[in-house]
Write a structure and sequence with these properties.
single chain, 275 residues, 2 domains, three-stranded antiparallel sheet, two-stranded antiparallel ribbon, 7 strands
């Protein structure tokens, strides 16, 4: 059903090779429809929601074992003086078995190391805005290219119709084969066009929010609910982070916000961090 053009107000009749706009309004806009086709065709990745964990173990499923690569799990154990919470590897791997307090304390320390100073954030803001403007310009160029492709395919369809309906220079079978081929090309071009389009984002507003939140990340993580803890930790480490039983892997992939600064001179960053 998600393939049906009726959602965008089009009526299709394969028997007589006609696609026409109906006299009723579309249920969704064309951009959404063609993005859905891209997902159905496997041309763009699908973002699946993360499974939310138990509030006692906010790092469960997020921190990975450095040895086996599996996400750590968490559980309570009984001891002589009560119950104790631990993070550990699932199944056979025993490389990591660490108390909840130790792992979460080490993670808070890791967040504190990444917390930017106000001076660092000003540099981030300038760099991100510059990169965003470059990305938007590149996206506009790609979209213009896709628009030219769309117009070229539509022109071919018009010429094909003219050759069959008016000039009668091709037979029905040839017309049908070429029409189907061009329609498939047109659909793929529309999918590419809407995939290349850059979503409208209030980048300056996002950066202003980041200026308020990121310098306090460690304290906020300690005080926040499970949902906000997970959101915050994924902001800093979108792909999670590995732990070897004693320390975190410092080569973890951090958020784009920090990767944008890689070309900046290290001396300049060091000066900013001292302010």
């Amino acid at each position: 059903m998600l393939r049906n053009r009726i959602y965008i107000g089009h009526i299709e009749s394969p028997e007589i090779a006609v696609i026409a706009r109906g006299d009723f309004g579309p249920l969704i806009d064309e951009a959404t429809f063609y993005r859905a086709q891209a997902v159905l065709d496997g041309r763009v990745p699908v973002a699946t929601p993360r499974q939310r964990n138990h509030p006692d173990f906010p790092l469960r499923g997020f921190v990975r074992c450095e040895t086996c690569g599996r996400p750590l799990t968490g559980s309570w154990s009984k001891g002589r003086n009560g119950r104790y919470a631990y993070y550990h590897c699932p199944r056979r791997c025993r490389a990591v078995n660490v108390s909840k307090a130790a792992l979460e304390g080490a993670f808070v320390d890791e967040l504190a190391l990444l917390q930017p100073t106000p001076g660092y954030m000003r540099l981030v803001k300038d760099r991100v805005l510059c990169v965003w403007e470059q990305e938007c310009a590149a996206a506009r160029h790609r979209t213009a290219e896709q628009d030219r492709r769309l117009k070229a395919v539509r022109l071919k369809l018009d010429r094909l119709d003219e050759a069959f309906l008016y000039s009668e220079s091709i037979d029905l079978d040839t017309y049908g084969r070429q029409r189907d081929k061009l329609r498939e090309e047109l659909t793929l071009s529309k999918i590419d066009y809407h995939t290349e389009a850059v979503e409208e984002l209030d980048v300056e507003g996002i950066l202003a929010f980041a200026e308020r939140i990121l310098p306090r990340a460690a304290d906020l993580w300690v005080q926040a609910s499970l949902d906000y803890r997970q959101r915050l930790q994924e902001l800093f480490f979108p792909e999670g982070i590995a732990f070897d039983g004693f320390r975190f892997n410092r080569t973890a992939v951090t958020a784009l916000l920090f990767r944008y600064l890689e070309p900046v001179e290290q001396a300049e960053l060091n000066n900013l961090r001292r302010r």
